[in-house]
Specification:
Pfam families: Glyoxalase (PF00903)
InterPro entries: Extradiol_RC_dioxygenase (IPR052537), Glyas_Bleomycin-R_OHBP_Dase (IPR029068), Glyas_Fos-R_dOase_dom (IPR004360), VOC_core (IPR037523)
Keywords: Dioxygenase, Oxidoreductase
Shape: globular
Helix content: 10-25%
Structural class: alpha+beta
Protein name: Ring-cleaving dioxygenase
Strand order of the largest sheet: 2-3-4-1-13-16-15-14
Domain VOC: 9-134, 157-280
Oligomer: single chain
Number of strands: 16
Order of helices and strands: EHEEEEHEEEEHEEEEHEEEHH
CATH architecture: Roll
Largest sheet: 8 strands, mixed
Radius of gyration: 19 Å
């Protein structure tokens, strides 16, 4: 088996939403992320697939959504990514609390976790998310999108995901196989008080943490839940070696699947969370100029001939623009 290159961290997180316009308004206007790709679910082409990220769609920054309008609300529980956390620059949480107040978004009291300050909140579908203050280094690879939020407060990619697991030990061994290192434990606050949170760190600067919490709380997939979490395997060789390593753990990864902006391998880890391995290339600017990312509905090659049929099934949406919002105020 080829030597495994440790994953640098999270590549993207994909979630389930309800109303597509409400989803766009929150993630673009309220949270200030850039819509870097407006496309379709390649396994269900009558459904949008939105990708929100930093200004350039840097790996480790994209939160993506399938807005399945007719699906019921979900419930976060065991065998899921329970929380997705984003990095914000140190000293930003006062700004964010004021912004959330202005936009009528509920949030919880700040908590301290592994020496960092965390602001928990939910999106309009009830998806649990967190903003974590960090020191952003000068050479950070993320590029803030500043149409709605100034650079000094803008979201700078992922901080972490939290996994709720009934039997964490096998998953923790898998994370070690993927190149993450256990870096600490502490008593959990909030969701599962009294339980122990274990943190693992990947090798890269963005989306490097995976927290593991034991719980047997039941859940179901639906609006407001995470569909899957993708980890970076930057090259095809990296991905192939990681796929073999995952297979050696007794799991059943798929063959590589071309997802147009990256190539993917999927598998369910030992507790049922859907993991993906994703390459860095060709990237979100492979089929649109960087300045125009998200400006049109992009259909991967095999779907272009069905554009009229697909567009007829999709709800009309408008991407928020700062100048339009200011004109309405």
């Amino acid at each position: 088996m080829a030597a495994v290159t440790p994953t640098p961290g999270i590549h993207h997180v994909t979630c389930i939403a309800g109303d597509p316009q409400r989803n766009l308004d929150f993630w673009v206007e309220t949270l200030g992320l850039r819509l870097v790709k407006r496309s379709i679910n390649q396994d269900d082409p009558g459904t949008y697939h939105f990708f929100f990220a930093d200004a350039e769609g840097t790996p480790g920054t994209s939160m993506t959504f399938f807005p399945w309008e007719n699906m019921s609300p979900g419930k976060v529980g065991s065998g899921q990514v329970s929380r997705t956390a984003f990095r914000v620059p140190e000293g930003s949480l006062d700004f964010w609390e004021a912004r959330l107040d202005d936009h009528g978004v509920d949030y919880d009291d700040r908590v301290e976790r592994f020496g960092e300050t965390v602001l928990p909140l939910t999106d309009p579908d009830g998806l649990p998310i967190e903003l974590v203050e960090v020191e952003v280094p000068d050479d950070d690879p993320t590029v803030p999108w500043t149409e709605f939020v100034p650079a000094e407060h803008a979201i700078r990619g992922f901080h972490s995901v939290t996994l709720w697991l009934a039997n964490p030990d096998a998953t923790m061994d898998l994370l070690r196989t993927m190149g993450l290192e256990e870096v600490g434990t502490e008593e959990s606050q909030g969701d599962t008080p009294g339980d122990e949170r274990t943190r693992f760190a990947a090798s890269g600067p963005v989306g490097k943490y995976v927290d593991v919490l034991p719980t047997i709380q039941g859940g179901r997939q639906g609006h407001g839940t995470v569909h899957h979490v993708a980890f970076q395997t930057p090259t095809d060789d990296d991905q192939s070696a990681m796929r073999s390593a995952v297979q050696s753990e007794g799991l059943r990864p798929t063959q590589q699947i071309n997802r147009h902006w990256f190539r993917s391998v999927y598998f369910r880890e030992h507790n049922g969370v859907l993991f993906e391995l994703a390459t860095s290339d060709p990237g979100y600017d492979s089929d649109e100029p960087l300045d125009d990312l998200g400006g049109r509905l992009v259909l991967p090659g095999q779907f272009e001939s069905r554009r009229d049929e697909i567009e007829a099934q999709l709800t009309d949406v408008t991407v928020p623009r700062a100048d339009a919002v200011e004109a309405d105020d």
